[in-house]
Amino acid sequence: MENDTNQPEQNLENQTAVNQSSKLAAVKQSLQAIMQKIKEYPFVANMNPQIKKMIKVLLIGLAVFFILLVFIGIIFSFLKNRPRKVSPTPTPTLTNVEISLEEEVRNPSRYATDSAVLAIEEEVKKLDKDLMNVDLKESGLWPPDISFQVKFEE
Amino acid sequence: MLKRYSWLLFLLLAVIIPFGIKNISGAEAEFTYQRAYQDYIYYMDLYRQAYNEFQLARSQYLQSKTLTAKSNAQSATLKLLQTRDEVVKTQLTAIRQKIQDTAGISSSEKQLLYSQIDSEVAWFDNHKKALTSAGTLEDLVKDNEAASERYKGTLLVSYGALNSISVGKIVNFRETISKIITDINKKVSEIRENDDKETQKIERWLLETDNRLTRSREKEQSARNLISSIKPDQRNIQDIFNDSQFTLEESYQFIKEANNYLKEIVREIKTAD
Fold first, then answer.
1. Which of B78, B109, B133 is the last residue of a domain?
2. Does some domain include residue A52?
3. Residues 62-101 of chain A whose Cβ lies under 8 A from any Cβ of chain B
4. Same-domain check for residues B181 and B93
5. B33 touches chain A (CB under 8 A)
6. A17 to chain B, closest Cα gap in Å
7. What CA–CA distance (Å, rounded) separates B116 from B234?
8. Which of the residue ranges A23-37, A39-53, B11-25, B70-84 would you say has the lowest mean pLDDT?
9. Residues in chain A within 8 Å Cβ distance of B155
10. Is there a domain that residue B4 lies in?
11. B77 and A89 in contact by Cβ < 8 A?
12. Residue B145, domain member (yes or no)
């Protein structure tokens, strides 16, 4: 039963294989015919066999050279079109760990509740906040993207 | 009758005139950085619109070469040049306001920057006014060339001022840290006199913090040197400015480290031996 269902697919595959081999044979035949015509050409037929060999080598060499040229061209165009890896502008990073002042001191000294120390602590906290929120670069004010290309000649 | 009510008139004037003066000066005082920045963004939008219209009118003129197309191109060019002048003026004005608001820039430096900016703003203001007297499209093209030439110097002023703003912020942070260090030193002296807590570690950490500030100062100086090395005809002004900003970022990182040290010092003072 299974063989019956596979039968038409196998037939189709066989038919395509036959078609392809017949096409190849036809191409081979036509190429042979062209080569035969070239060989029968009086100029080629009367040519010195050594020169004939040299031309043959030269032609094969040229063909190889052109194939290589095309191959290199494809590789270069591929490399050219490949998106360039954009490396981000390096920015210095703070290596030390962030210290928190919010954490409670486990073993407090007599200065833990000192008003001057607490005032200093407040100043440090405020500065920390300001440092976090600062816009150092002010990039919104950087020179605008304006054009001075006002020309009426082509 | 008139004499009887003259005192009433006098009273009314006495109330209305100071009120009016207050309102006028109030309106002047309301010109903040936010307002200046909004003006800049508004003119930038107008410029983009004018630029698109100019491109269209230009291509139509180049295609047809008719008098009507030339007239349209002239109107579009005039609008483009006028809005572009406004963009330059408002951008510089916003920078000026930012300088005004930035602590850390010395008053002498501020005055120098103001005069440089004001000079550029005045030039573009005059240029904009003169544009209306341009009779032909060729006149406008010449006016554009003059603006293009001037803008090279304007860019130098812009980058210099922007660098000063960043430096000012860093200087302000450093001054705050120096003040905190002074306060901590006072407290440490008091603790040493009381002799109830070991202070050597804190004093060593304070020196480390001060060292971070020195490193920050060195980086800031390098950034200043980079900007002052720029020459008007230099092509890579933008690159030098970027380098300077990067160096200032490093300077800022040293300040952040110094502040983290301060946090540790405060914690150490609050902790018993």
1. B133
2. yes
3. 89-94, 96, 98-101
4. no
5. no
6. 59
7. 19
8. B11-25
9. 143
10. no
11. no
12. no
Q: Is residue A109 part of a domain?
A: no
ipTM of the predicted assembly exceeds 0.85: no
- The parent domain of residue A74 ranges over 47-84
**Long-range contacts, stretch B121-126, CB < 8 angstroms, 24+ apart:** B121/B89, B121/B92, B121/B93, B123/B150, B124/B85, B124/B88, B124/B89, B124/B150, B124/B154, B125/B85, B125/B89
For chain A, the domain total comes to 2
Give me the amino acid identity at A148: F
In terms of domains, do A37 and A53 share one? no
What is the number of H-type helices and E-type strands within chain A? 4, 0
Taking contacts as CB-CB distances below 8 angstroms, the residues of chain B near A109 are 197, 269-273
Whether B21 is covered by a domain: the verdict is no
B212 part of a folded domain: yes
User: What is this structure's pTM?
Assistant: 0.70
Which residues 200-239 on chain B approach chain A with CB closer than 8 angstroms? Answer: none
Q: What percent of chain A has pLDDT over 90?
A: 31
The minimal CB distance from B183 to the residues A120, A146, A154 is found for A120
Per-residue pLDDT tens over the stretch A63-92: 999 899 988 888 887 776 554 444 445 555
How many domains are there within chain B? Answer: 2
Is A146 an interface residue toward B (CB < 8 Å)? yes
